[in-house]
Write a structure and sequence with these properties.
two-stranded parallel ribbon; elongated; 151 residues; alpha/beta; Ribosomal Protein L15, Chain: K, domain 2
Length: 151
């Protein structure tokens, strides 16, 4: 098959309706828009408008996925810890807490809740104190000889 032989499937395309070409075509004069009024004009998009009645999307109660009491953690992967140690932003010999992570630029200032995730690998023995940690992250740190304090 060559590029100049590619064709659409039979019936896949349809010619647009030519409107305003006389009454014989069935779409002449008002072009199928009826007579006068807002929707006969161009540029009208009244989605959800119900003639002044309260629209359905406003009659239904609000419900969604933004719980008020949700806790948001700043997430740090084990691999990012390793990168920061290699670049000299973190000292593996000292305990690593939230303040050290903020100073190293791994966590934004003002986010006291930090969660350690297990993506990447750790080659250095470190002592980490964080708000939360996954089982995989704890296993990776302990495998390297370090410890994780969650609290």
């Amino acid at each position: 098959m060559k590029l100049n032989q590619i064709r659409d499937n039979e019936g896949a395309t349809q010619n647009r309706t030519r409107v305003g070409r006389g009454i014989g075509c069935g779409k002449g004069k008002t072009c199928g828009r009826g007579v006068k009024g807002q929707t006969s004009r161009t540029g009208v998009a009244i989605k959800g408008f119900e003639g002044g009645q309260m629209p359905l999307h406003r009659r239904l109660p609000k419900r969604g996925f933004n719980p008020i009491s949700s806790v948001e953690y700043a997430e740090v992967n084990v691999g990012r810890l390793q990168q920061a140690i290699e670049s000299g932003r973190l000292d593996a010999g000292k305990p690593i807490g939230v303040a050290e992570l903020q100073a190293a630029g791994l966590v934004r200032a003002g986010s006291p809740l930090v969660r350690l995730l297990g993506k990447g690998e750790l080659k250095v023995k470190v002592t980490v104190t964080v708000t939360g940690a996954t089982k995989g992250a704890i296993a990776l740190v302990e495998k390297a000889g370090g410890s994780v304090t969650v609290g």
